[in-house]
């Protein structure tokens, strides 16, 4: 349902419908800002990158490819702009800068837990999530918070489709391991706590 | 095929069903389906333990500028000349009704701000029951409009005063502007604002009117039978009881005040008949108490838009035994 509406709005925008363009801006600019700020604390760079994205949309319009997921399309565009702008600001030659050089994805979880969460070892889960490498954090971010499919994530991050699924599986296996040991103790705890 | 932990974890419905109370269901879920139980724990951390990054200094003003300039480019690069195509479906979805000044609005922002335009104009935004909406007003103010609410925006030639009429509840993020007074008018009061974030709750059918300040400064004026205005500090909530005419300022949990934007309501020792009014707007139902005294019982707890209303009544039932009967959109409640 959401997807069909997206395709429709995108078509209207491409045909030059100003309201559709406004709608796209109003709906997604904050989400873009939030995603952009995870790469860098340079807010002006984020702002300029968002501007680049929308200026390009406005210019190219009918030459853009169709999409049934506007958010995905915009996240992909923004990521390209942000990396390009970081490169520019660092005056680093393109060949020198691979993904590893942009070594941040600011996503972290609070390890302050209440007793109930502590009992379930959620502080350890939060800690394990905090330890994940930046690109894996980004994968989880796009999948969990932005509802992107593996294929879409791969396209946004310009990585192999299979590696998205594999890396997520590995990360989750690790989290499950932490929880598994705790599960047993929890059941024991519950059995003793509840007569 | 059996679903793996990750199948659950990244499933949209599963994610939406996660609440802060999900942990309580863990022991039971674990015996039923271990994969989904583990996904629940991981999802809980992802959803509720995330640290927010520092507040952005990129303001609505920056965004409005970008929007304005992109629109200029958009118009210029229009291959088929200047045409206006209406967007009936989107407009209906957002339930935005433009009563007056339609023509000037469609001609774009430039004309919108034209100083030669002496005639005061009004734009009206409306949400029905069960639906929320977010809008950015022409002056850059961001407004999230809660269920069943109405907002009138006056475009006046007077740049020093921006007036907004509100019936219902809205969250405002107003851009700082020293040379202008921003005022929200409701039937029981008006709120004068300096660059700030705040929530105004003023439903005519509710007994209580509230204003909560998250950031900045506001001044509450025109309170019935009260001369002096009330100034709020961030974190404070002003409450006005319409039946007794009493008002007070309390320390509020500002995190909970605006959770309605994510479809979450937290009730703190509120009478059931007041809670029912919120539920009516949230779930598009009519709630009737077979026993008026029951409506005065006080309850604390949370309601989530993603859960059905029955789930909320189950929760109530734990502390106040009730019997609920439902006939399509009408719900009758009585004591068990």
UniProtKB/TrEMBL annotation, chain A:
GO terms for biological process: DNA-templated transcription initiation. Residues 124-175 form the RNA polymerase sigma factor 70 region 4 type domain. It comes from the Bacteria. One of its GO terms (molecular function) is DNA binding. Keywords: Sigma factor, Transcription, Transcription regulation. Belongs to the sigma-70 factor family. ECF subfamily. This is RNA polymerase. It comes from Prolixibacter denitrificans.
From TrEMBL, chain B:
Residues 125-219 form the FecR protein domain. GO terms for molecular function: sigma factor antagonist activity. Gene3D superfamilies: 2.60.120.1440, 3.55.50.30. It comes from the Bacteria. Keywords: Membrane, Transmembrane, Transmembrane helix. InterPro entries: FecR (IPR006860), FecR_C (IPR032508), Ferrdict_sens_TM (IPR012373). This is Anti-sigma factor.
């Amino acid at each position: 349902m959401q997807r069909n509406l997206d395709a429709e709005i995108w078509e209207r925008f491409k045909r030059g419908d100003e309201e559709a363009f406004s709608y796209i801006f109003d709906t997604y600019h904050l989400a873009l800002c939030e995603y952009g700020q995870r790469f860098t604390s340079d807010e002006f760079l984020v702002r300029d990158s968002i501007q680049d994205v929308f200026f390009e949309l406005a210019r190219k319009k009918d030459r853009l490819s169709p999409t049934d997921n506007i958010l995905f399309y915009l996240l992909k565009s923004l990521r390209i702009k942000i990396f390009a702008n970081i490169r520019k600001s660092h005056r680093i030659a393109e060949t020198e800068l691979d993904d590893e050089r942009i070594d941040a994805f600011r996503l972290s979880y609070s390890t302050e837990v209440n007793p109930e969460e502590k009992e379930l070892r959620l502080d350890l889960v939060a800690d394990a999530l905090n330890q994940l490498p930046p690109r894996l954090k980004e994968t989880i971010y796009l999948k969990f918070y932005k509802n992107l499919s593996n294929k879409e994530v791969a396209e946004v991050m310009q990585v192999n489709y299979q590696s998205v699924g594999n890396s997520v599986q590995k990360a989750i296996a690790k989290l499950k391991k932490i929880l598994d040991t705790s599960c047993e103790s929890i059941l024991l705890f519950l059995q003793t706590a509840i007569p | 095929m059996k679903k793996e932990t990750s199948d659950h974890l990244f499933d949209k419905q599963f994610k939406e069903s996660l609440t802060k109370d999900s942990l309580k269901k863990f022991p039971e879920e674990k015996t039923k389906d271990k994969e989904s139980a583990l996904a629940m724990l991981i999802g809980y951390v992802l959803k509720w333990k995330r640290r927010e990054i520092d507040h952005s200094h990129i303001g609505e003003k920056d965004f409005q500028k970008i929007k304005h300039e992109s629109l200029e480019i958009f118009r210029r690069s229009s291959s088929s000349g200047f045409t206006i195509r209406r967007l009936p479906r989107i407009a209906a979805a957002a339930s935005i009704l433009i009563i007056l000044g339609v023509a000037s609005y469609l001609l774009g922002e430039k004309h919108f701000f034209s100083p030669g335009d002496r005639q005061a104009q009004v734009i009206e935004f409306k949400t029905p029951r069960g639906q929320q909406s977010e809008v950015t007003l022409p002056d850059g103010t961001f407004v999230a409009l809660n269920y069943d609410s109405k907002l009138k925006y006056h475009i006046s030639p007077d740049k020093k005063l921006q007036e907004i009429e509100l019936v219902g509840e809205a969250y405002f993020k107003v851009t700082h502007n020293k040379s202008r007074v921003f005022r929200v008018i409701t039937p029981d009061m008006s709120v004068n604002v300096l660059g700030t974030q705040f929530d105004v709750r003023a439903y005519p059918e509710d007994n209580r009117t509230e204003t909560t300040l998250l950031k900045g400064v506001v001044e509450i004026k025109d309170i019935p039978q009260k001369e002096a205005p009330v100034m709020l500090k961030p974190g404070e909530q002003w409450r006005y009881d319409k039946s007794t005419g009493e008002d007070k300022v309390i320390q509020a949990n500002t995190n909970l005040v605006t959770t309605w934007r994510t479809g979450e309501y937290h009730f703190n020792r509120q009478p059931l008949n007041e809670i029912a009014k919120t539920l009516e707007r949230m779930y598009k139902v009519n709630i009737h108490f077979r026993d008026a005294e029951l409506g005065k019982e006080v309850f604390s707890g949370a309601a989530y838009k993603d859960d059905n209303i029955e789930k909320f009544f189950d929760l109530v039932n734990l502390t106040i035994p009730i019997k609920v009967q439902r006939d399509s959109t009408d719900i009758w409640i009585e004591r068990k």
